[in-house]
Amino acid sequence: MNANETILTPSFVHTSGNLIPLFSEKVDGQVFAQPLYLSGTTSSKLPGGWADGQTHNNVVFVVTENATLYAFDADQDPKYVKGHGTSNPIWSLHLVPTGNTTAVPIPQIDTNSAPDIRPLFGDTATPVIDSTQGIIYVVSALKDTATLPASHPYEQLLWAIDVKSGQPVNGGPVVINPQFNGSFPGDRNTPCSQTSQVPNTPNNTGCENDNEPAAPAGTIPFYPLHSHLRSALTLDNFSGHNTLYLAYASHSDGQPYSGFVVGYNATTLQQTTEFTTTPDNTFEAGIWMGALVLLSILH
Fold first, then answer.
1. What is the Cα–Cα distance from 90 to 51, expressed in whole angstroms?
2. Is residue 45 part of a domain?
3. pTM of this prediction exceeds 0.70
4. For residue 284, is it within any domain?
């Protein structure tokens, strides 16, 4: 409980009629990531105007499993009509590189995982906002059979997006592709035959359509299909630090996966550090915890 809260007190919340829906907004997919709130007090200190040319006080950011990030006015929607599925964001951005017309969020069925999240794995992790720079950081997970190799058509992208304009900044997006020191036991799944099965279609034979890339001796590759970013993105910008951390687990223990932590410079989006929980020729040991716990361990 926030002892400094003056409006949402227990008595206020428990009183009938005090909390009523004001309006709703339609989005293009499931929402598993936590919506984020940026107050007008904070956003008024940031340079530039909002993408729609209007004035906004408090703003809510929502990202979907269809890999779309939205910014909504948290106080009002003059176009809202009760009972109609309307969507009137300040801006929205589909988290696919500009000009790419073939990439789609990773289908759940490609992972051969439990259907707890379906049909897409575009973005499960809660983004993070740098309120001093006016940047929201987010990750999208994509499949692209047109521009990526048929044997490895998956990638994850790290984005830095201006909260007001909705446009990528800091050179983003960048491909998340770390390598980790250690011994790689190899992908134990059997690649699907390219002649008997169209790549990346549903399979029920125990094979998969993603052959993990060969890793140099003494290193472990990143698994963009199997590594599931569940923990919230964590920004360490205290005491002169400037690192954005990603912590990985899996899709319902579908192998191969390992516990991975990857750090990026928040200004350049260049990778600065990497860590794996399984450097010893094993799998699993994913990191499922919340971001604040991750940060306390890193310190």
1. 6
2. no
3. yes
4. yes
* Cβ atoms within 10 Å of 295's Cβ, excluding its own: 16
Examine residue 168 and state whether it is found in any structural domain, yes or no.
yes
Task: For 50-93, write each residue's pLDDT tens digit.
Answer: 999 999 999 999 999 999 999 999 999 988 888 787 899 999 99
Number of domains in the chain: 1
pLDDT-derived band of residue 211, with 50, 70 and 90 as boundaries? low
List the structure tokens of 134.
């006016």
- Print the domain residue range for 113: 101-298
- Is residue 213 pLDDT above 80, yes or no? no
Whole-number Å distance between alpha carbons of 30 and 176 = 23
* Residue 128 · residue 37 · CB < 8 Å: no
Decide if 92 contacts 166 (C-beta within 8 A): yes
Name every residue whose Cβ is closer than 8 Å to that of residue 230 and which is 6 or more positions away in sequence: 124, 125, 248, 249, 288
In this structure, which amino acid lies at residue 182? G
Please state, in angstroms and rounded to a whole number, the distance separating the CA atoms of residues 199 and 205: 14
Q: How far apart are CA 33 and CA 257, in angstroms?
A: 21
pLDDT per residue as tens digits for the range 157-206: 999 999 999 999 999 999 999 988 887 776 666 555 544 444 444 444 44
Pull the structure tokens for residue 23: 């309006």
Exposed, middle or buried by CB within 10 Å (0-12, 13-18, 19+), for 181? exposed
Residue among 119, 146, 100 nearest 28 (CA): 119
Measured at the alpha carbon of residue 262, what is the angle toward residues 93 and 283, in degrees to the nearest 5?
Answer: 115
Say if residues 237 and 167 touch (Cβ distance below 8 Å): no
